[in-house]
Amino acid sequence: MLGRGSPGMACPLAKLGRSSPDYYGSSLDQGYHTLVPSGWTAQEKPKRRPPSHTERLPDDLLLRIFSCLDSPDLCACARVCRRWETLAWDPSLWTTLTLLGENLSGDKAIRCIVRRLCSSAGRASLRKVVIGEGAWITDKGILMMARRCPELTWLQVHGCSAITDSALFELVTRAVNLHHLDITGCIQISCVSVTPGPEPPRRLLLQYLDLTDCNAVDDGGLRVIVRNCPQLVYLYLRRCTKITDAGIKFVPSFCSGLRELSVSDCTQVTDFGLYELAKLGATLRYLSVAKCVRVSDAGLKVIARRCYKLRYLNARGCEAVSDDALTVIARSCPRLRALDVGKCDVSDAGLRALAESCPNLKKLSLRMCDLVTDRGVQCIAYYCRGLQQLNIQDCQISIEGYRAVKKYCKRCVIEHTNPGFF
């Protein structure tokens, strides 16, 4: 699948802009109009057809129409006629490039598109590039963007294991306005930094950084990242298994404005790491420590007391978390909107405290919480009337608890595994 700004790679780029012959234009007028059969009169000569409605449209209006099309449609338009070819390749229409699909060569696509755009505008106007779902890109494609796309602000590359640190460093050095970087599954990436040079290193303007499944990132790499990206607001480190408390402590030191952080599945992160993260204070709104099996009540209590403006907390799979922590979370974070305590050691007592202190709760997951019964779910339903999503899969909830949620929370979607609820 090719998204907006990317031509169909099944055919060479040169063919994408090939226009159809203009059978009514002067290019085919070679004097044959003088060879009129003797039986014809002047009135019987073939007449030119009147211009169509689209031919009457001015260029600026056609450009506005083309701006609503995705790249395959733009490529199809470019083959209608020479005028449409020129308009369809207008740089203003190619600010976003999306390459999705198995066995799609991102390197070739980027090279063709960038060369075509640079031939008309001097440099590519791409600002957003998204590559994934099997599409393939290497350092060659990254370096091409670094050299020809200085206006790049958004890059999302998923599952491209051939990308290395050196190409990424070159990109972030040249794309000075880059603020969104998602390199999920790029397993060779261990750090994000600028290319070293004679001048003092420049701080990056990145605000969003997703390093999910970048297993090469360790504590040293994380220290360099947060030091070079002081404006980070969103940082996701899911399944970066080499990160420990020693690396986590650098996050609040350099990124004091961080609002969202995920260290889910970082199994070496413990309560001591949460003590450091608590220094983010009221700025932190989103935290995921899912499946951090060494996190317990002690760490979450400190987080709740210091980060009292939390909106989202995910502690799924932290089996050492109990009602003790849930009570502190509920009383310290009344603005909480989403909570996942699946497979935690929580019971009806903790749910009652949560219901009474967080009436604006929207999403709650209790999956595999064996100690939760109908009483706890009924309490949540009664106090949290605006609940929109509830997960009670693999819980000991009967039809009474289910009916209570349906009665008080009219718009709630209930996820369950009990066939008797239907």
3D architecture notes:
This protein is an alpha/beta fold and 422 residues long. It has 17 helices and 13 strands. It has helices at residues 13-16, 53-56, 59-66, 71-78, 82-88, 106-121, 139-148, 165-174, 219-228, 245-248, 250-254, 271-277, 297-306, 323-332, 348-357, 374-383, 399-408, and strands at 96-100, 128-132, 154-157, 180-182, 208-210, 234-236, 260-262, 286-288, 312-314, 338-340, 363-365, 389-391, 413-415. Strands 1-2-3-4-5-6-7-8-9-10-11-12-13 form a 13-stranded parallel beta sheet, with no helix packed on it. Helix 7 (139-148) runs parallel beside helix 8 and helix 13 (297-306) runs parallel beside helix 14 (323-332).
Relevant terms:
422 residues; alpha/beta; 13-stranded parallel beta sheet
In short:
By secondary structure, this protein is an alpha/beta fold. Helix content is 34%, strand content 10%.
